[in-house]
Amino acid sequence: MTTDTAASQALRLSAASAPAALPGVTLPAYDRDKVEIGVVHFGPGAFHRAHQAFYFDQLLANDPRWGVCAVSLKSPGVRDALSPQDGLYTLAQLDHETSFRVIGSILEVLVAPEDPEAVFARLAAPQTRIVTLTVTEKGYTLTGEGKLDTTHPDIVHDLAEPRRPVSAVGYIVEGLRRRFAAGLSPYAVIACDNLADNGWRLKAATVAFAQAVDPALASWIEQNAAFPRTMVDSITPATDDALRARVQAATGLADAWPIQREAFTQWVVEDVLGDGAPDLASVGVTLTDDVRGFERAKLRLLNGVHSTLAYAGLLKGHETVFEAVGDPSLEALARDLMAKDIIPTLTAPRGLDLAAYAEAILERFRNPEIRHLLSQIAWDGSQKLPFRILGTVKDALDAGRDVDRLAVPIAAWFHFLKARAAEGAAVTDPLADRLLAVVQALPGEVKGDVAGFLAVEAVFPADLAGDTRFVAAVEKAYGELG
Ligand code: CS2
């Protein structure tokens, strides 16, 4: 039977059809009709559905208060795929052992621009205690220094019309404003993106926005709302047709948007949620006062090396992380970066052996079941590299160490941008126009080219771009890769 015939014959996943899933598929272990919505999530992309929604799914087995209302800030794609499935979707865990689980924690999907009032109603509902976000680095609308970007078009819009917001920060503030006005307690806001000090940055941006709307609201948020910092981790490649076919074969049901990830998953949350919070520890979340230790280690070792493999791997013609880490010269680069450049900048959180952690990350990259495209990781370099590489560069320079190897991912990114421009291919990056203009104006010799890229101050702060040790290292790497 061809896949097409199988697809046309399979029942679509839904509340009614889920019990007909093939044996071995895990189904929600609770009555979804009894679940209340206690969480509003912004940005229900693959990572949310692989990660936080999975934790809430486990939580619901013991506590029905933590169902999720998922809010897309822009496109209706997730709602259109999940509504006919009653919010259900399949999570495929692809590893040494493979498992398939139908996740039931998403009870409602809203598309904010279509129905902002419905989003505000959820945010202002007394039962809503938690707001989570996966809106990617650029969704935080911060400047290069990490402050609210009041020149960002979405923030300009929202400050002019705070009751009709389009940005994540704008929605968070309008929801809090309504709760403040109604005499309710604020919700806790849990940022789940790969930004250093994510919760703190988001709190500062939220308070700065609220200050412009109503100073009393700003101080109420400042004093009462929890914005824990977090570390999130699980490798989640984008969904493709191969996954849809695999999920259908394994479950017997057609799912328009299943999600795949490795078996490993980790969520570390700063222990500031207080009374009445979900019992996240009961489902494997680490609550700690040392998030920074975990978050730096993960951002610099996993994400830093991911971005390195992405740019350096694409230049060498590789397509996936698995292929790149199987290339001996790239594996050696990854190992040396971890051991000699990154680990010396880290302080291990209690109980974490950094060398073993680094080794475990490389082992995860070698997972043959996961086809993680380097081109996916290469997106949004201007937003990612500051957290993933440049923080390490700064610490190494401050400690008087050379940054020759750390300059390799930076130089590889420059070559990647040049190659994309030469092919006439699009660059997925909020700074794409600026970066492509830089490429067009390159003089074509090492010093001039590097100076052109390093002049993008939203990525390279002036002190770094002016550091002769850094500039020399990038020139060397750029020349060698060229
Ligand atoms: C990756 C991350 O796409 C990327 O930039 O580095 O999504 C990475 O897979 C996750 O952070 C792993 O937790």
UniProtKB/TrEMBL annotation:
Domain Mannitol dehydrogenase N-terminal residue range list: 38-278
InterPro entries with a match to the protein in the record: 6-PGluconate_DH-like_C_sf, 6PGD_dom2, Mannitol_DH, Mannitol_DH/Oxidoreductase, Mannitol_DH_C, Mannitol_DH_N, NAD(P)-bd_dom_sf
Record's keyword terms, sorted: Oxidoreductase
SUPFAM superfamilies attached to this UniProt entry: 6-phosphogluconate dehydrogenase C-terminal domain-like (SSF48179), NAD(P)-binding Rossmann-fold domains (SSF51735)
Molecular function terms, GO-annotated: oxidoreductase activity, acting on the CH-OH group of donors, NAD or NADP as acceptor
UniProt keyword annotation of Hydrolase present: no
Domain spans labelled Mannitol dehydrogenase C-terminal: 290-480
Name of the protein in question: Mannitol dehydrogenase
